[in-house]
Structure formats: structure tokens, C-alpha cells
Amino acid sequence: MRSHAWASDLHSAAMDTPYHFQGGTQFDDYLGPRKVALRRRHEQGYLPNKTALHAMLGLPEATAEGPCAFCKDSNPRNFIITTQDIVAVDTDDLSLAPLGYDLAKIVATLHLTYGPLSDQAVTTALLEYNAAARRHDARLARRTGASSTASWACTPCSPPRTSAATASSGARAPAPA
Q1: Per-residue pLDDT tens over the stretch 13-66
Q2: How far apart are CA 128 and CA 86, in angstroms?
């Protein structure tokens, strides 16, 4: 489903503009809804001050380059995996997102639900994700080389670890976006 959507439509989408598919379906843009959610969380007390809000507002901008994919609620229970395909379910709220956003959200969900994932598991998932993107379309492959500074594909990293200081600070965790 995702690769077909990219090939038929999403290759021309922009992260800052809602996208209308040829069949009439509309996806929200990537930046607008996330900025609205961050402002709402600031108003609700999840962000301590305007400086923190402005720092957080810069994160979606920093990640909004490269090819568009679609994403919203990427967690393990929203995918059916068969031997032939992976099918997304619960798709009513899809929006545009950068390539790799869905994988990052799945890795974070697994980490927060089941505990730390091994570096090898995360790296394997990233390598497989990037290989699948490259097999699908060369424009989705990682750009490397001296002439290119852009890299849209995911790069291996360790999942976030919760420090004792963060866990004991009593800070409110934001609700999932």
C-alpha cells in the first residue's frame, strides 16, 4: 500500500501542504498538525516555557526534508504481516511524514512497551527498511557521496534510554501525538 501510494502520488507531495490524492483522499500535511499539537501541549503545561516550545517547534521543520511517506499511528498493532505483504490498518488519520518516521515510531513504541531493544535489532530493522526503499525506487535510496549532503534514509542509532534523572524528575510526559 505505502509503496504504491508513493509511486502513484506521494513523490510530488510537500511536507508543508495537505496532499490530495488522485482518487480524492486528502492527507494532512506534516508540519501544521504537529505545530498545533505542540502549542496545545504548551498550553496544557507539558512544556515548561516559550523557549521550550520554540525549541520543540523547530524539530518538525528540521525533519521535513526529503521524500514524503504517510504515517500517523505506526505501532505494531496497526499492521497485519503476512508472508506476502504488510497491510496497514486503522488508516483514518493518516498524514504526510518524512521517510523513516513510521519506522522510528514503531521502534520507539516497542522500546517504551517492551523495554530496550538491542542495537542489533534496531540496526537490522533500519537496514531492511532502507533496502526495501532502495528496491522500490532509486529516489528513496540513501544519498551518499561527496556531492550530496542530504540523506533521507534512516541511519542506525540506539533507541533512547531513560536516565535515572529523567525518571525521577517528576516531569509530565506528553501524550502521544
Answers
A1: 888 888 887 777 788 888 998 899 999 999 999 999 999 999 999 988 888 877
A2: 14
Q: What is the DSSP letter of 88?
A: E
* Contact call for residues 78 and 88 (beta carbons, < 8 A): yes
Residue 118, pLDDT > 80, answer: yes
Task: Enumerate residues 6+ apart whose C-beta is below 8 A from 75.
Answer: 105, 106, 109
Euclidean distance between CA atoms 156 and 117, whole angstroms: 13
Least Cα distance to 69 among 106, 100, 92, 35 occurs for: 100
Longest dimension (CA), the chain: 50
Q: What is the mean pLDDT of residues 66-82?
A: 77
**Pairwise CA distance, residues 121 & 149, whole Å:** 27
pLDDT for 176: 43
Residue range 116-121: mean pLDDT, rounded: 93
Q: How far apart are CA 45 and CA 145, in angstroms?
A: 44
Amino acid at 120: Q
Provide CB contacts within 8 A for 141, sequence distance 6+.
Answer: 130, 133, 134, 153
How far apart are alpha carbons 48 and 53 in whole angstroms?
8
Q: What's the pLDDT at 162?
A: 39
